[in-house]
Amino acid sequence: MALFRQYNDIISLIDWMPTLCAAAGVADIREKMRNGFAAGNKTFRVHLDGYDCGPYFRGETGSGPRDALSPTCEWTPTSGAWMKVVER
């Protein structure tokens, strides 16, 4: 990872869970949580929306895995321009 590197791609707060789990050695946490992941004496079976941004931060890819914000957000980028999302 380059020191003082600037990242301009979209990273969401929900991306930190898969990113930090992968950095700690738990790869594919999204799939594991979907199928039932045992941690300690508990089993978690949930859907995680986040993406592992580790390859982007390490410079292995030229862009982050996310191309838009969650549709629940008020504003979302499309094709380089921002548009307002209207919920119906």
Task: Please write out the topology.
Layout: H1 16-23, H2 29-35, E1 37-39, E2 42-44, H3 54-57, E3 75-78, E4 81-84
Antiparallel strand pairs: 1-2, 3-4
Explain this structure.
By secondary structure, the protein is an alpha+beta fold. It has one domain. It has helices spanning 16-23, 29-35, 54-57; strands at 37-39, 42-44, 75-78, 81-84. Strands 1-2 form a two-stranded antiparallel ribbon. Strands 3-4 form a two-stranded antiparallel sheet. A hairpin with a 2-residue loop joins strand 3 and strand 4.
Give a quick rundown of the structure:
Helices cover 22% and strands 16% of the residues. By secondary structure, it is an alpha+beta fold.
Mass-distribution shape: elongated
Radius of gyration: 15 Å
Fraction of helical residues: 10-25%
Please write the string of helix (H) and strand (E) elements. HHEEHEE
Number of helices: 3
SS content category: alpha+beta
Count of structural domains: 1
- Low-confidence parts: none
**Mean pLDDT across all residues, rounded?**
80
Report the β-strand fraction as a percent range: 15-25%
Q: For the largest beta sheet, what order do the strands appear in spatially?
A: 1-2
Number of strands: 4
| Biggest sheet descriptor | 2 strands, antiparallel
N- and C-termini, Cα separation: 42 Å
Core attributes:
88 residues; alpha+beta; two-stranded antiparallel sheet; elongated
